[in-house]
Structures are given as C-alpha cells and as structure tokens.
Amino acid sequence: MKTIANKGSRIKQRIAMQALSEKELHFEEKMATIQNLIGLGMKAATEEIQNDFVGLVGRRYEHGKRMGPWGSNRGSIYLGDQKVAIDVPRARHGRTGEEGTLPSYERLQNPRMIEEMALRRVINGISMRKYEEAALSIPETFGISRDSVSRRWIKASGKKLALLNDRNLGAYDIVAIFLDGKHFSTDHEIVVALGVTLEGEKIILGMIETSTENYVVCRDFMKGLIVRGLRVDDPILCIIDGGKGLHKGIKDVLGDQGVIQRCQWHKRENVVGYLPKSRQGEFRRKLQGAYEQPTYDAAKKTLEVIKRELRAINLSAVTSLEEGFEETLTLHRLGMFEKLGRGFKTTNAIENVNSLLGIYTDRVDYWKNSEQRQRWVATALLQIEPKLNAASGYQHLAELRTAMAQWVGKQNKIAELKTAA
C-alpha cells in the first residue's frame, strides 16, 4: 500500500509540475523573444517592465494599491548578446518600506535564460541551421545568428552532460539495470545504463562511448557507476543482449551480486538466424512458446525438445541456443517469470530509450567530435527520463530482490562445499 501511495503522490506531483512548467514556458518564450529583438527590444522590454510596475502601483488616479512609485534606478538588461542600460522604475510600500519586484526585469537580467530556450528548441529537432532559417522568416530585427545559438547550445548541453555524468547514484535503490548500446556509426557506439529502483522508477544511470562493447570499456563503465554511489550490497538483475564484453564486465565488477538475465528476444532471433527462411517462422513460434512457459522446469523441458529438433537441421543453431542457455531462464529459475517476465525478460526497456534517443540524434548528418556527440546524447537522455513509464510489475520488485539474495546465497554455499571437497 505504501508503494502505491508513493506512486500516486509522485503522479500528482508530476502533474502539478507539468502545469507549472507550461505556465513558465509561456512566460519564458515571451521573454526570450524580447531578448532577441535587437531593434524593437528596448521598446518591448521597457513596456513589459512598465506593465509590471503598473501592476504594483496601479494606473494614475487608481485607488486601492498599497504600493506607490519611488523614482527609478539605473539598471541593465540583455538584448541578444548585448547588455543594455535601462531606467528601472521603483515601487515601495508606504508603511513598511517594502520594495516591489518586477519579474520581467529580473528575467531580462539573466543571459542564461535565452541559453535554456535555445537548448529546448534545438533538442526538439530544430538543428542550428534550421533555426537560422526560421529566424530569417521573422523581421530582421529578431537578430538570432547561427553562431550565437551554437555557443549557447554548446554551453547549455555541456551542463546537461556534466549533470548526467556526475549524478549521485547513492540516492537510488537500484534493483535492476538494463544495458545496451546505440550505434552512431561503424566505429562509434554509446552504451547506456538504465536503472530500475525498488519502486519501479526508471533512472538513466550513465553512458559511455566505445567502438564496440568490449570487456575493458564495460568493466570501467560499471566501476564508474559504483564510484558514483551505485549500491551493490544487494544483488542486481542485469538484463543484457548477450554481448560478451558486457557480460564479462558485469561479472568482473559485481561478481555474484550481478545476476544476469539474457534477453530472450535476442536469443530467439540469433538461433533462427541460422535456419533456412522457410523454417524460421516455425521455430520462432516454438522458441517463443518455450520461453513463455511459467516455470523453469516446463521452459527447460520444452527447450530441450527444440534442441533435438534443431540438431537435424543446423548444429550451429543448437550451439547458439546452448550459449548462455541458463541465463535466458534466470527469471524462471528465480520463480519470478510470471510476475516480472513482461518487463524484464528482454532488453526492450533500454531499446525503447535508444529509440527515443534516435528521435533527437538520428537526424544529425555529421558529428564533429566525441564531445559534441556525448553532449547531445546526455541532453536527450535527460529530456527522455521524466517521460519513462514505471517498470512493468514494479509491485513485485521487492520479491525479486529477496529471490535473488536467496539464489546467490545458495550458489555461494554450493561453491564453498565444492571447494571444501
């Protein structure tokens, strides 16, 4: 009940924050436009500040306002890249002496605000070149140059990269991690780690760039997560597609605490890939049916039958099925397949993240360097994260942790007995 209550509270909080952000976005859009009106900016900015001032003191001869005009000060605002001097009217409470604030003036004093607005527009699919083309359709006084947007984009996305890479993972109680890589070219791949908390919340734990999912890179990636606070006192279910580098890296760093679940979808597709096209559909259905068996014994028995059938067709398909065979049945072995199989039997969760990531990055025709690529990916991941749904079957994640702890303890005891013998 506590978990459900917490989830309901989070949903309400998210709805409230969304409503607030939409209101703030409208205000910031207005302020951002004013900042970039080079020719008309001063006039528009003055009008906005004056409107705030009138809101405090009222119009001439209007009664009922507690604040009154109190002269003006020399101040400054940002219009485009330029800091411009401006007279700022003052309003003060007649009795308390409290001075009123002018929201428009405060916003226009902050050059970082336009930096964030440029970031939002670019990350939502408008490249810097297209943004320049859009700006040209507005009056020339709009004054946004491609170089100006580029500088702000680099600065803002650099902050997002630092935020993602430096995030303290000790604040999250992680029970499962999905790991997979997204290819950007033949020689460039970014491996992303998606964590699932005990309450079912999905968190982007980090990313690392590599040419392939090799052992050394994956090992260092996992070590880096621990340095940043990833808790490993309890076992963690690691869902991977079967890459040897990821597997070895996890085991080298987490040891027995890293409980591997091999993606059943990847295993199935790897096996049928060895078969003639005329037989692929048949064995795809058979393998799918075997993996959907509710218990470990039933699934293993059905898969053994399929192995015997495959021997008469292609021994390489049998070898593929046998490789990592037990790890494709980890959830079955833990007795958790019926409760958690839907969300944790495959790498679909992380592949969905990579698919959403592609919306932001696939349209980029040319990457100048690794730093640019990582800035874009980090920014996109932080945009995607709040939109991720809770893990399917999250109500049973505490049971999963208990089942993994019991299994690891049992395996350690067996290993000790073998060593003693």
Radius of gyration: 29 Å
Class by SSE composition: alpha/beta
Shape: elongated
Helix proportion: 55-70%
Across the major sheet, the strand order is 5-4-3-6-7
Strand content: 15-25%
Number of helices: 17
Order of helices and strands: HHEEHHHHEEEHEHEHHHHHHHHH
Average pLDDT for all residues: 79
Number of strands: 7
Q: How far apart, in Å, are the first and last alpha carbons?
A: 47 Å
- Largest sheet properties: 5 strands, mixed
pLDDT < 50 stretches: 1-5, 14-40, 125-144
Brief account:
With 421 residues, this protein is of the alpha/beta class. It has helices spanning 2-36, 41-57, 103-108, 112-123, 128-136, 146-166, 215-227, 244-254, 264-272, 277-291, 296-311, 315-322, 330-333, 337-344, 348-361, 370-384, 397-420, and strands at residues 67-79, 82-93, 174-185, 188-197, 202-210, 236-240, 258-262.
Describe the structure.
By secondary structure, the protein is α/β, with parallel strands linked by helices. The protein is 56% helix and 16% strand. The protein is built from 17 helices and seven strands. The chain has helices at residues 2-36, 41-57, 103-108, 112-123, 128-136, 146-166, 215-227, 244-254, 264-272, 277-291, 296-311, 315-322, 330-333, 337-344, 348-361, 370-384, 397-420; strands at 67-79, 82-93, 174-185, 188-197, 202-210, 236-240, 258-262. The strands form two sheets. It has a five-stranded mixed beta sheet, sandwiched between helices. The chain has a two-stranded antiparallel ribbon with strand order 1-2. α8 links the parallel β6 (236-240) and β7. The longest helix has 35 residues, at 2-36. Mean pLDDT is 79; it is low at 1-5, 14-40 and 125-144.
